[in-house]
Amino acid sequence: MQGFDTARGPVKVLRVLPHDDASRPSRHRQLRESEVAASRLPSPRRRSPKRLREEATDVGQESRVACDGAELGAAGLPRRGGGSSEATRQKRLKSARVTEQADAIVALPGRTRLETLKVKRPTRQQYLLILWLLGCWAMGASQTVMDGNPNVSLQETLVFLKQHEEDDLVLDDMAAGFLDQIHWEGGHSGHGGRLSSALAWLLPRHQRLGAGCLPRLHQAWKAAQMRAPGGTRLPYPEELVHAVTMVMAELAILRGMPLEVATMTHLCHHCYLRPSDLRQLTWGYLVPDQRRPVMVLTLHPAELQASSKSGEYDETVVVDEGWLVDLLTMLKQRHRPTDPLLPVGGLEWQKLFGDAQEKLGIVKVLGKQTLYVLRHSGASADAWLRRRSLEEIQRRGRWRAASSTRRYEKGGRISERFNRCSVPIQRYAVKCGTLLGRVLSQQCKPLSPP
Asked: Minimal CA–CA distance to 143: which of 200, 92, 185?
């Protein structure tokens, strides 16, 4: 449509449509745009009926192969995470049977055996003991919290506590009163943490992720820690560790025990080992390194299914003390890989360690220590003598937090404890450090204590 302007001449006149018609394209325009867009897409490749049958056959074969190696569920479909072979399943079944035979599993009330196995057997016995004491006291069957009542069975106390699982106020009052009674009877403050962990193990509702909480128990526990702090494992000076190991070698010869028990005691001190770390290992897990004059000890192998205290597997520690490496290399040649590293039982080992302390005459001065003191003594000696940095000590000791190694900066306690001993014992301990390697290698007789 055209018009006429006196200034510019003929002009094109546009027709102004209403708002609805202008904003909405026509039906013809919509169809045209869709046709153009479809024409720009690549046309699908035509496949013959024969090719389609071949592709369907390939897909079916792949599905059957995937299902053959997977564990099938009730509906015949592969389970999520499947893919385990029959040999692997039999291996897991055998491991479960070994665990069942080696561990006297008594399931908690209302819990499965697997849930009960969340806690290892030694800790489980401690938890059951304090739960039994709590139950006896709460039921009014015992006068004192530390005695219990032999006429009340463990199962009765566990069922009694299980009945109060949903009542947080009653259970909290019960636990706080029990801990208060322990404190005023002269009990250790560590009972609070053990009681809290035991209740969380028995009653999952009161775990960290549970819905229940016991604020009065935790408040009483913190107050007990402030008023009666627990004792700290003070380390032995390195000279005294050498002296105790020397006396152990002498007692082992007199009692007809292998001299290797003293060697393994020194190995625990050198590698910061827990007593339980060594009891489960064999000579096959102590191997020489081909590039350096050291030996490598593998702790908590995954195939043994026994994790560390922190739940770790396949931890390693390097033995880098010269004479100890030579001695262990010689002893390894005499043993088969399946022979245990510790030639005696754990109780015999602890008894020999305690008898050596008494014969040396340091129990009255420093108290009688357990084998666990070797772990802290080795780390303290390396930090005090600056043989290793705190970061190296943390890695060697398998401590997760750096705060766990700060105690070893206070090495002055080592000198203070060594000076508590008499002068003859100090001289004997220093001399043992120079002769220990020859004695354990059976090149000379053990040196008798003063």
From this structure: 185
Task: Provide the terminal-to-terminal Cα distance of the chain, rounded to the nearest Å.
Answer: 128
- CATH for 238-440, options being 3.20.20.140, 3.30.40.10, 1.10.443.10, 3.40.47.10: 1.10.443.10
Residue 428 structure tokens: 């004997």
Q: Amino acid identity, residue 37?
A: A
pLDDT per position as a tens digit, 156-187: 898 889 888 888 888 888 888 888 888 887 77
- Which residues, in sequence order, are CB contacts of 77 under 8 Å at separation 6+? none
pLDDT at 51 > cutoff 70: no
CA 216 to chain CA centroid, nearest Å: 29
The pTM of this model reads: 0.63
Q: Where are the beta strands (DSSP E) in 216-344?
A: 286-288, 295-299, 315-319
What does the chain come to in residues? Answer: 450
CB contact at 8 A, 273 and 376: no
Positive/negative CA dihedral, 422, 427, 430, 435: negative
CB 375 within 8 A of CB 272: yes
Torsion of CA 44, 45, 46, 51, to 10 degrees: -130
User: Residue 232's closest CA among 40, 404, 70?
Assistant: 404
Which of 402, 359, 358, 405 minimizes the C-alpha distance to 380? 405
List the domain boundaries for the chain: 2-31, 113-227, 238-440
Residue 411 backbone dihedrals phi, psi, to 5 degrees: -75, -10
At residue 202, φ and ψ (nearest 5 deg) are -75, -40
Given a contact cutoff of 8 angstroms between Cβ atoms, the answer to whether 273 and 375 are in contact is yes
Q: Where are any strands of DSSP class E within 282-386? A: 286-288, 295-299, 315-319
- The most distant pair of C-alpha atoms in the chain lies apart, rounded to whole Å, by 134
Residues 290/283, Cβ–Cβ less than 8 Å: no
* pLDDT tens, position by position, 87-102: 777 777 777 776 666 6
Please compute, for residue 4, the number of CA atoms within 13 A of its CA located in the half-sphere on the CB side: 1
The 3-state DSSP class for residue 78 equals strand
The answer to whether residues 328 and 286 touch, using CB atoms and an 8 Å cutoff, is yes
